[in-house]
Amino acid sequence: MSNPVTYLDPSQLPKNLWDPDTGLLHIPESLARCYEALIDRHGLRELASSRTRDDSPIGGIDQVSTDKHFAQQFDNSVARAQLSLTNVTGEVDAASDALVCALSAGAICLTDAPCGAGAASLAFLSTIAELRKQDVLPRLPLEVRLLGAEISPFARDYARQLLEDMRPFLETQAIFLSEQLLEWDATDRLSNTDLIQAMVRGCPELNNRLLVIANFSGFLSQRGKQKDVEPQLEELFRHTSGPGNVAIWIEPQMNKVNSDGGIFHWLAQLTPLKWRRFAQLATGGEASPPFMTSSVKFESQLALGRPHPIRLAVMRLDLERS
Q1: Which of 155, 162, 217, 206 is nearest to 182 (CA)?
Q2: Which of 121, 156, 222, 278 would disulfide-bridge 241, Cβ 3.0–4.6 Å?
Q3: What distance in Å separates the CA atoms of residue 90 and residue 174, rounded to the nearest whole number?
Q4: Using one digit for the tens of pLDDT, what is the confidence trace for 152-186?
Q5: Are 78 and 170 spatial neighbours (Cβ–Cβ below 8 Å)?
């Protein structure tokens, strides 16, 4: 991307984001407060506190599924995305470098598909804002045009409320956000065309583009979904491609993601075979796996004193044309 290259030194992270003494990751206070306020605004506190170790909601299109995922998984998803940016263990350098560089200054079109309630995008923006506030990163003007694509209207509504609540804090750190939240069915070509047209029309003068795909494995691991979604992913990668443009794919470490037959190995096979003209895997070399992993502990604002592990698997694809 055309922004000056800026990399993040994990040793410079403020303790309110990462405390090496306790080994705990904390999501930015600004986002934690907005999330907690929205949980209470919609009467979801009891649902949020009722999660057990056996629960692993993946969301859905209806209100009940969306509420359960938002109440029990949203801040986990935020922490996982934050880990990919802050790289506190030093294991996901390629993802962190791309994200910090993309979100340093200037103007960028950020496409988050599927966006859910906005966990990944909000994690990135709130973390960058907090790092600016703590003078870790320079406070240079950044214009972000966010396209959030999500099938659930209830999740889009939560994302809309959180983005509006976060806007004042972001602007104090010279991050100026405009957003468009679109209905997106990843299996439908016409729905995907609407998203791509919004990318082209909404950011016509922007060459800097970042595509974020997060927490999609629950859907893609269902029978037949990879085949249904593959053409739409190809279109998204192709239309996002350009000099310096990047896709970051974030998932929890699970067998359906990082096993030999998992989502990331499926992508690693597709990229050189079908997408090589507009997408290349960014790895540490031929012998390196096609993705990076990292694990830390995280303390939820809704469950203080009960830290639990966050396990990240992240893939970086450079969307350079050849």
Answers
A1: 155
A2: 278
A3: 28
A4: 999 999 999 999 999 999 999 999 999 999 999 99
A5: no
| Distance separating alpha carbons of residues 202 and 204, to the nearest angstrom | 6
Residue with tokens 């009940």: 64
| Beta carbons within 8 Å of 308's beta carbon, 6+ residues apart | 297, 298, 300
Q: 91: which 2 tokens?
A: 């294991």
Evaluated on CA atoms 267, 289, 317, 103, the torsion sign reads positive
- Asked if pLDDT for residue 70 goes beyond 80, the answer is yes
Q: Over the stretch 19-47, which tens digit does the pLDDT of each residue have?
A: 999 999 999 999 999 999 999 999 999 99
Does residue 111 contact residue 212 with C-beta atoms inside 8 Å? yes
> Locate tokens 């299109």: which residue?
61
Domain limits, the chain: 14-318
Q: How confident is the model at residue 52 (pLDDT cuts 50, 70, 90)?
A: low
User: Cα(156)–Cα(200) distance, rounded to whole angstroms?
Assistant: 21
Which runs of consecutive H residues, i.e. helices, occur in 173-262? Answer: 189-202, 217-220, 225-240, 255-258
Q: For 14-318, which CATH superfamily applies?
A: Vaccinia Virus protein VP39 (3.40.50.150)
Cis check: omega of the bond before 309, within 30 degrees of 0: no
Task: Give burial (CB, 10 Å; 0-12/13-18/19+) of 189.
Answer: exposed
Is the Cβ–Cβ distance between 14 and 29 less than 8 Å? no
β-bridge partners, 148: 112, 181
CA dist 191 and 220 (Å) reads 17
List of residues 6+ apart from 11 with CB closer than 8 A: none
Q: Compute the average pLDDT of residues 114-137.
A: 97
Q: What does the alpha-carbon distance between residue 175 and residue 62 come to, in Å, rounded to a whole number? A: 33
